[in-house]
Amino acid sequence: MAAALIQAIDGQQPHLLRLPAQEGSASALEEVRYVLGSSLPPPGPVVLEAGRWLLRLPDLRQLQELLAALQLELVRVASHRPETLVAAAALGLDTDPGPSRPAPPAAAAGAPAPDLLVHRGTLRAGDHLQGEGSVLLLGDVNPGARISAAGNVLVWGRLRGVAHAGVTGNREARIVALQLRPLQLRIADVVARGPEGLPPPGLAERAQLVDGEIRIDPAAPDFSG
């Protein structure tokens, strides 16, 4: 199924640009070029429904430039992929992780945990955000707040509270943030304090276990690694 364009009924609503349910041989840019070539909408804002497509910063920049050349403004990206949401936020776009899914039934022992919990907003002192899989926070973690996950902890903001990744013992889990300045870091059963200096300009930071110790390194701002 190709990309679909739902034009706004009036000038108050944005156009809806929906990518196919599954990624195919064509890139997202090619899909959008095809649908715009067959049905060019009037100028106005556009909401992109990316679904499970993995769109990084360069991909979204190209889409943004393509739309801008047609007097269309990309204003929001809806996606089920945390990497796509983070890349959209990096471009200053509104993001939407999609409607909340109902809680799954209790899993049998050894079954994989839910893959991602997305939360938008700052965690303040006394708050605790916890996920059974990985957690993506679009906001800051203030001192006195906690964020924890059985998988990875991803923070599109400043991490200055307490973060615990791999709470069930996953030593491959990572903690990634735009600024990693926590009061305490934990990965599985290993504990460390955050660095005191500022991170390299334009780079996120990643904490992971290396030889049994938590090491913090620069990371790509799309959280890919």
From TrEMBL:
<dbReference type="InterPro" id="IPR036145">
    <property type="entry name" value="MinC_C_sf"/>
</dbReference>
<comment type="similarity">
    <text>Belongs to the MinC family.</text>
</comment>
<dbReference type="InterPro" id="IPR016098">
    <property type="entry name" value="CAP/MinC_C"/>
</dbReference>
<protein>
    <recommendedName>
        <fullName>Probable septum site-determining protein MinC</fullName>
    </recommendedName>
</protein>
<feature type="domain" description="Septum formation inhibitor MinC C-terminal">
    <location>
        <begin position="119"/>
        <end position="216"/>
    </location>
</feature>
<dbReference type="InterPro" id="IPR013033">
    <property type="entry name" value="MinC"/>
</dbReference>
<keyword id="KW-0717">Septation</keyword>
<dbReference type="InterPro" id="IPR005526">
    <property type="entry name" value="Septum_form_inhib_MinC_C"/>
</dbReference>
<comment type="function">
    <text>Cell division inhibitor that blocks the formation of polar Z ring septums. Rapidly oscillates between the poles of the cell to destabilize FtsZ filaments that have formed before they mature into polar Z rings. Prevents FtsZ polymerization.</text>
</comment>
<keyword id="KW-0131">Cell cycle</keyword>
<comment type="subunit">
    <text>Interacts with MinD and FtsZ.</text>
</comment>
<dbReference type="Pfam" id="PF03775">
    <property type="entry name" value="MinC_C"/>
</dbReference>
<keyword id="KW-0132">Cell division</keyword>
